[in-house]
Amino acid sequence: xxxxxxxxxxxxxxxxxxxxxxxxxxxxxxxxxxxxxxxxxxxxxxxxxxxxxxxxxxxxxxxxxxxxxxxxxxxxxxxxxxxxxxxxxxxxxxxxxxxxxxxxxxxxxxxxxxxxxxxxxxxxxxxxxxxxxxxxxxxxxxxxxxxxxxxxxxxxxxxxxxxxxxxxxxxxxxxxxxxxxxxxxxxxxxxxxxxxxxxxxxxxxxxxxxxxxxxxxxxxxxxxxxxxxxxxxxxxxxxxxxxxxxxxxxxxxxxxxxxxxxxxxxxxxxxxxxxxxxxxxxxxxxxxxxxxxxxxx
Length: 297
Known about the structure:
By secondary structure, this protein is of the alpha/beta class. Helix content is 40%, strand content 18%. It has helices at 83-97, 110-121, 123-129, 152-171, 181-192, 199-211, 214-225, 254-263, 279-282, 284-296, and strands at 4-8, 11-15, 21-27, 34-39, 61-65, 102-108, 130-136, 241-246, 268-272. The protein has a nine-stranded mixed beta sheet, sandwiched between helices. A hairpin with a 2-residue loop joins strand 1 and strand 2 (11-15). Helix 2 crosses helix 3 (123-129) and helix 5 (181-192) crosses helix 6. It comes from Amycolatopsis tucumanensis. InterPro entries: AB_hydrolase, AB_hydrolase_1, AB_hydrolase_fold. Residues 35-282 form the AB hydrolase-1 domain. GO terms for molecular function: hydrolase activity. This is Alpha/beta hydrolase.
């Protein structure tokens, strides 16, 4: 089966080769010399890039989309809720919607892992076309040992809770998690954000979480536990790269970002004091500035 695209303005439905329909948004001139591909995080969707988009240079084509099982895309089919599958989805999207020209890839959290898996599974694409990469609050390994920023016994308990939560989601039969948004917001705020949180940002992320398909995101959490793509990063050496992380990130903490930077010693390493995991909301201008630099290289 071949991938197909149905267009409606800037919103499109892209059907992957295994028959999964993904929500896609393509903006900017189709004849642009460079396409910026924005790849979102676990339990979020393409709307997480909304704050960044207006601050990017004009004249650039921007491709953003919802992973399978997230936002307005269809749920992941059995056995396809994996980071490897996300990389294959991304390769198909690029082949159909940005088949020519330079590429700059920006991945947040699971989106960054997707970019790493793309380098692993489609090295010829990365080598021939990718001229810049941004890894935003992400990890190349050790996602099976998260303590959510807690120490000692509390950290060990947090790790067990994290794994249990993933298993519960993986078995969930409903289309959405039936938690009222006001009850979910405090947990989202504590887990995902650092200091000086804006209520609108917490609301936006909570809405994204509650839109995601539980069984799909549970499967992706299991896949992230097995994610180790340090070797795949080798193919990005020599490519202009920026690694960004907040010093209050509980999900992909600073030492995860440092491992990426060690594998890519020429990369720019940016540490944001006071910021948590949601850098597209918490440090919007700084993220947009680094992406703009990559686009101008």
